[in-house]
Amino acid sequence: MPDIPFVLPHWMYWSGLLLFPLFAMYIVRRQAKAPPRAGVSLPVGYLLWLTGGFVGIHRFYLRSLWGVVYIPLFAAIIVFSNPAGRRALDTLSDARHDLLGAEFDVERFQKALVQGAEGAAAKLANAEQALAAVLEQMVAATAAVDHWQMVSGGFATAIAVLLLIDAVLLPRLVRRRAEAEAEASTEIAGEAAPEPVRDIELAGTHEDPTTPRVGSRITDIIDAISEWSGEFVCYWSLIAVFVYYYEVLARYVFNSPTSWAHESMFLMFGMQYMISGAYAFREGSHVRVDVVYQYLPVRAKAVTDIVTSIFFFIFAGTLLVTGWIFLADSIDVWEVSFTEWAIQYWPVKITIVLGALLILLQGFSKLVKDFILLTRKEV
Question: Are 30 and 282 in contact (CB under 8 A)?
Fold first, then answer.
């Protein structure tokens, strides 16, 4: 299979982290407002075409047996041509190594001949014969590599042509599948409809479930900001699925492991960890030792939270100050990573400051709620 020299551009990485969550949030909220929809979906069909079309997943989604056409073509690449191509590459690599040694011997014996060393002429002749043999091996190995790349490329081209055809046919295929499912549902319309599945509202979120819900306008705004920030970065996990999916294909199918996939994702998850801290605090998801706390009455819990909030604000404030120092130093030198990808580090350092600021705001919201609980007559 031909190599893939693609390296993710920095601008695409940063713009993807900003735009993809916004697009995903729009799609999810739009779908939540829309009535339930049965049957196949054209966007899902194209998604499967893009990510799994090389093995006919989109065809199987539409219940079309033509999807099996893709499997032998892809299997031929994985089982037949790619292993042979890798063996040819290993042979070529060995031949290149032998070539360096043969060239070194020829050069060494040529110098010995000039210096009049005894037996240098015979040794030079043997070295030149060895060099000629290695050159023949190089030619044969190069031809073998070219041959297997052409074979893999032929199978890949066949898959690509089929995918392009299906890209054009997919709207009609989806429409026909939807019509078939509609006819099938009409035939069983007289039967008893199944009981609709009801959505179950999750309980136990939003801090302590045993504590009454209180707040003010300012705490509602802060809670909304924390909720939005948590929802925003949660969609980054979907990006990881696509990136690691690409890495597996590039590494094991195209023999082109990337130098950026792992680095881009562990940086992304580090930023996600920082920004989502406020949302986790709002939802009561941080680790808390509550062996005694869980048995306290509501007012006692509020007093305990107020007293222990001193340690929280010390930690969060220290994180904000030190994060700002790290950010300033990073911007001062326009820090980048020490890898080949050389991604900018200063945007990563921004999330330290942003995450500390968000969790400080959420801590202030929690503190206001605790004081409201203390001042209420009935709890």
Answer: no
* Distance between CA atoms of residues 51 and 257, nearest Å: 18
Q: Are residues 346 and 259 in the same domain?
A: yes
Whether 347 maps to a domain, the answer reads yes
CB atoms within 10 A of CB 365: 24
Q: Are 5 and 251 in contact (CB under 8 A)?
A: no
pLDDT in tens, the chain (379 residues): 556 788 999 999 999 999 999 998 988 888 778 776 667 888 889 989 988 899 999 999 999 999 999 999 999 988 888 888 888 888 999 999 998 998 998 898 888 888 888 888 888 888 889 989 989 999 999 999 899 889 988 998 999 999 999 999 999 999 999 888 888 776 655 555 555 544 444 444 455 555 567 778 899 999 999 999 999 999 999 999 899 988 988 887 777 889 899 999 999 999 999 999 999 999 888 887 778 888 888 888 889 889 999 999 999 999 999 999 999 999 999 999 998 999 999 999 999 999 999 999 999 999 999 999 888 766 5
95 located within any domain: yes
C-alpha 53/C-alpha 40 separation (Å) is 16
CA–CA gap between residue 179 and residue 174 (Å, rounded): 9
